[in-house]
Amino acid sequence: MVTQLGLHDNDLVLWVQLLAETLNAELLATLQADHPDLRYAHGFLFQQLVERPRAVGEVAENLGVTSQAISKAVRELAALGYVERTPSPDDARVRLLALSERGRAAVEASRAARRSVNAELAAALGEDRVREAATTLQAALESRNAMQAVTSRRVRSAQGLLGEGR
Q1: Is residue 103 part of a domain?
Q2: Domain residue limits at 141
Q3: CA angle at residue 115 from 34 to 97, to 5 degrees?
Q4: Is the pTM of the predicted complex or chain greater than 0.70?
Q5: Where is each HTH marR-type domain found (predicted)?
């Protein structure tokens, strides 16, 4: 079947991209109500710091960018109160990055927004369809050898850490 766009309905890549763009825009708009300075790309850095503080070099390696790119993003996020830099207890020359209280609040706000959208989708589509879709998308990630990046929080932005615009 051909849609109004002239595309075939089974173009999974297209539908996933369009849904991701739509959901990302909705979630970012919700998050920016309380955190107006945050951008989509900041989430990739936040994910590196959710579990524990990390060294600049480790974050850079995990995200596939330079230490300079991480340092630039951290300066911005530290000035906004989302990230803190502290000396490593093992080596004072190494700076550890950690989420501040405000950074953790932004992470929780993002999680709450995702829970809300997931609940809306479950109400609109039904719990079984949402669970089946999630399972299918996880299998698709596995088929592309991408689940390791997801589970290790090493998903990288296609636009780079600093992204485009605000």
Answers
A1: yes
A2: 12-151
A3: 55
A4: yes
A5: 9-142
CATH (domain of 88): 1.10.10.10
The total domain count for the chain is 1
- Read off the tokens for 117: 């959208």
Q: Cα–Cα distances in Å, from 76 out to 129, 135, 162?
A: 41, 37, 10
Q: Note whether residue 5 is domain-resident.
A: no
H or E element that contains 122: helix 101-125
Please enumerate in sequence order all residues whose Cβ is within 8 A of that of 157, keeping only pairs 6 or more positions apart, or say none. 40, 41, 44, 63, 163
- Predicted confidence pLDDT, tens digits, the chain (166 residues): 455 666 667 899 999 999 999 999 999 999 999 999 999 999 999 999 999 999 999 999 999 999 999 999 999 999 999 999 999 999 988 889 999 999 999 999 999 999 999 999 999 999 999 999 999 999 999 999 988 888 888 787 755 554 433 3
Given a contact cutoff of 8 angstroms between Cβ atoms, the answer to whether 121 and 9 are in contact is no
- 145, amino acid identity: N
Amino acid symbol at 92: A
**Does 162 reside within a domain?**
no
- Residue 118 domain flag: yes
